[in-house]
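DM from R.C. (forwarded with permission)

"hey, sorry to bug you on a friday — could you get me a structure for this? deadline for the figure draft is monday and I only need the backbone to look sensible"
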Amino acid sequence: MKKKLIVSAVCLALLALNSCNRKEMPFYNSTAFAIYPDRVEQGEFRATALSPEHITSDYVSPATGIDPDIQFKFSINGRDNELPFGVNHQANIYPEGDDPVMIAVIFGEKADAGSHKDASQMLPPNTRVRFRVDFSKVVKAFEDNGFYDDLHGNRIFASDFKGFYIAGDTYPLNWDFENIAGNPQLKMEDPDGDGIYENELVFNVYDPSAHTSSEWRLANDIARYPQFESASLLLNALYNMSLDEMVMLMEEDGTFRTGKEWAGVWTRDVSYATLLSLAWLAPERCMESLRRKVSDNRIIQDTGTGGAWPVSSDRVMWALAAWEIYKYTGDKGWLAEAFETIINSLEADSKTVSDPATGLKRGESSFLDWRKQTYPLWMEPADIYASLNLGTNAAYFQSLKVTGLMARELDREDHWSAMAEQLRDSINAHLWQEEKGFYGQYLYGRYHRSLSPRAEALGEALTVLFDIADDERKQKVLQNTPVTPFGITCIFPQIPGIPPYHNNGIWPFVQAFWTIANAAEKKVDAVESGLASVIRPAALFLTNKENFMAETGDFAGTEINSDRQLWSVAAMLAMHHRILLGISFDSDRMKFDPVIPKSYSGSYSLKNLNYRGGTYDITVTGWGDGISLFRIDGTVTTDHSIPSTMTGSHTVEIVMNGQVKEEHYRAVENYTAPETPLLSIDGNMLSWITVSSATEYRLYRNGKQELVPAVSPVEIPLSEEPAEYQVLAVDSNGVESFLSNPVTMLPEDGPFIIEAEDFNIHGENGAAGFSGSGYVRFSLENKRELNVNINAVAGRYAVRMRYANGTGPVNTDNNCGIRSLYVNGAFAGPLVFPQRGLDEWSDWGLTNVEWITLKSRENHLTIRYDDFNRNMDGEINEFLLDYISLEKYPGK
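My reply, with the result:
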């Protein structure tokens, strides 16, 4: 008996030890951070779940310590137009006494003020710095000439001068040039009119965006939502925290707010969030939120460059969200309502964003809608409209696909599935990079387009999830797309000189899609890493932040950030629902396909999940990449799904197979590409500014690399045909910069210029800077047609138009000008005139290139307003047209 007691005691001790050891075994462990069942550890910081309703964290952002070395530059009218792109003033602002630190700069001349000071000490709190800028050369140019030409060749007229500002890398400065005019603290002033502008700022003041709470406690009633339970206090608490934040984002009008700092409903945000998980948790609220993003029975493109649609065109994500709601609810009334909105939107898009040369869709990167963050700085809004982006095309493909499915559900003829297949073929033909094993970021350029080889995380994930990639390419995408220590960055490699946000940033909702894509293909190692990349920031920061820095994993230091961002909340909930429970929906069933890394082995349950007429308690046990046993109400079945017709209360028990494939993802350190060269042409000589990290340069002619060595300056041959040149820099690791700004060598006769005011509409001349005798104003008040008769040699022509649009800033609003071009009575393509600056009617630019065919001798061109030219504003669709440029391109 004594021996039995001893053995029993030993067994109990071993069980206790095993339980203790299991508690200490991490879900994930790397050199950067570790995830345990009850906590997250990163360096000296720890976040601990004390219960399913309580988490504490001692995390402190490193951004609370301020380096006295700062970078800054000055801005006319909120543009990056003082020094070359990526070149900044530098100064050490550590004070030497009680007086303000004085920084004196001559506009346009790079300064290194105070560089002799010791930079090893952190900046004292409330350091005052007075900036003095000699702006007299610009003032004199305004007085003498009526304008100032900046270093980029842009002419700024005195009548368009709105203000002079300071930008920089240290709070209260920021690099958000396009929003800087809205921050009066950053405006330079010249009260005595002597051309010397000044501003005193205080550095190292309390910055609320660099601090988080020390604990989270459940604040709202979440009992009506499905309840997640596991042996992990951390997973339980993060699920509850996300439901808590979801409730906080519910507005009284029945919609979802976009984030703590972002009021209202935003099309892409609510669409991605609905798709990830919210359709299952709050379908009626998701419906109402989507309805708020409809106008004139078309989807609203509410954010983006140049006055939004069609420069930004990812509004079609709305269709995916609408379909996800239907798959969960089976609501045919909602389906019919959404279907009409979607087909109206697709019809307008078909005339406006379809690229005839490639079959792809034009427009800005999906969600990456801050142009400097993911595009080279030389690209104007018109260039971005003409670009062909991976993520946007992936979203568009899936919107066509689900529209076809909707049509069939509604017993309508399906015109869209075939279009989806054609777009799939175009994506694979034009955006795939066999040598890299993943898709390129976008096609970009002007007369000739090239593929940016950067990886774009969201687009790569969507090609896998939407079956754009075939099985072989799916494997390559998931194996070759780079992933950094804190997660997958929006783009890779990073762009130099651009502060973190989309560039050099990680977004939890993007990480969620990447993790779900890996789960779909049973890449368990990547799933383990992906779960950790969503869990870590939420636990340490005690909220589902909008984004965080790729280099440090910190939430402070990105351009803009928000607590409880809607799609980040949805991302965390998706990790529980879609990964650990493996839940997804078809139009007629709920499906199960969990993926549980071995380190997560355990039991996970979701109770009180309502689906159609049934209520389900679901339990998943074990680990592995597949299901070995599936029971419904105790009955074993090989069909791992629940039909939509099932009613009543039921239990679902899933046992995992206890096996995974040994496959690894491409883990890399973060990396920044070389600067983009600035190219210029003088006669037949090309030259560019040296890029510091470059070991070689590659010259491109008409979108193709020249085989000759590229050393500045380069003599290029004279040609009777137009030739477009670009150059890129390559560093010692073979990493490329963006292609430079295009420069064109034209034949002596040059382009054929047609002055708009010389035809049937009377011209105006109130805005400065026009050519000829004036320009023609287009607006909705008078929907006049411009009719142009020209004689031409038969052939293919590039069309560009010089215009001004001062109805709004470059980065927001919805007043993009749109018209249709007809050639000899036939529709030839859209004409898009993006915003160029609020009330800056003398800021002239060129549209993107459109290609038309002219016959021999007389041709008739018409510019007119069609119904599908309606922009997102609906009332303001205005621009000034200076001239039309036609350039014949033999061989095109």
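R.C.: lifesaver. Residues 87 and 497 are 8 Å apart (CA to CA).
me: no worries. The mean pLDDT is 93.
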